Amino acid sequence: MGTLSTYSISGRVSAAGDKPIAGVTVSVTGGSSAVTDAAGEYTLSDLLPGAYTLMASKSGYSFAPTSMEVNLPPAASGQDFVGRPLVYLPLVAGNHRPVGCQAGSSSLAKAPGFARLLFSH
Known about the structure:
Elements: E1 7-14, E2 25-28, E3 33-35, E4 41-47, E5 50-57, E6 61-64, E7 68-72, E8 81-85, E9 88-90, E10 106-111, E11 114-119
Parallel strand pairs: 1-8
Antiparallel strand pairs: 1-4, 2-3, 2-5, 5-7, 6-8, 9-11, 10-11
């Protein structure tokens, strides 16, 4: 009886200026995951042929793209993500408008003691 061929997906996760981000969990549908090393690189190994959705996650970051589709075979390298740190600012009780923001220029996601600023252009 023959053996099933398996494949891998690999890439890099970096921030602005091509700075690597370590500790990012990169996962695919079906439960396999890998964590980026100090160089921001990851490899998901021993994947069976098929279509996979790839996602990156780390607390305090957002990633682009939010997900990507990968079809195996062949092995897929260069599946890269770019991370951007989320900025959380402490709120003063009763103050829901950051200093220097004009009305309508941002929205605040309420969380106990913190706000996530989503700026519009």
